Amino acid sequence: MIIDVHSHIISPEIVRRSPMPASLGDIEGAIEAKQDAGIDLTIVGSPSGASTMVPADCVDGYQRPFDQLRSYHDWLGGTVQSYPRNLRAYAYCDVYADEKSLESTAEILRDPAFVGIIANFSGADGYLDSSRCDDFFAMLAEVDVPVLLHAGPTPACGNGVTDYGMLEMVARSCDATLGLAAIVLSGRLEQYPNLRFISSGSGGATSALADRIDFAWKPAHWDDWIGAQRRSKKTSDLPSGPPARLGVGGRTNTAPSEMVRKLFVDTTADGPELHLANLRVFGPEHILFGTDAPPMPTVFRDKVASIRALPITVAEQERIFSGNALEMFDIQDITATEPVTAASR
Q1: CATH superfamily of 3-214+263-339
Q2: Which intervals hold domain Amidohydrolase-related (predicted)?
């Protein structure tokens, strides 16, 4: 059994009014192509709510009128009901959502068609270490579902990037890297130890930088300057240097290089290099099969073959293909109200 935890579809109403790859509207075509490659179930969602990922198509980057977002979720839930053997869905939630929107997200998740939340690594002016996200994290702890973190149409790190191709393929990977580091340094993984975050984009460069984040937490190379600052009674006598906050460390009490291993990543990266790095840092127990297709022009058989080619056991392959997802998501067979398992497929 293979479960694709990262894919997108768009409603006909959005297709009519917005620019997007045509594949996002071809639901049956995507299902058939995946079935041909042995992919049984796909979890779909929109990382931009009731809009597309084109920045010009968004209002304030992420926000849409409440009724539009609710209409999109109604369509998405109905679509899953039409393909109960092939689809499940994520409910979109703005990380800066107000109380009404957070309550609506919790309500949507009562529908068994929805098995998780899709949210962004960053908002228009910051990352998930912002106090503006406190209510979002409190809601996540209450609903207790996995969260697919995905770059939004205008990631915070993309400010000043005018080439859309670079924004889409490079800045959004940088957003994943910064977003995961912000979560780890913020202490939220200690505050909410049961939260489960899956990073799209295979975690960006997190596996390459996991140990280096420790220096952002406790920058030993600034110890001399920090010591002088603390010993001085006249701050005006100090040479100019980094902000006073430097050296205090993040809000996590545990080394980020250890905390980062609580995160999960998908397999959307192309080529074996990042998969191998992720195996070293996260292990096969924290990697889930994901294609980002639609809209990415993925050859599904090649994607499946790339995971089978990794230097891991067959049992570890099966964890990546479906075992981890089945443990993480409450996936019910909508037609029979029975849990979906590898044997039942």
Answers
A1: Metal-dependent hydrolases (3.20.20.140)
A2: 3-330
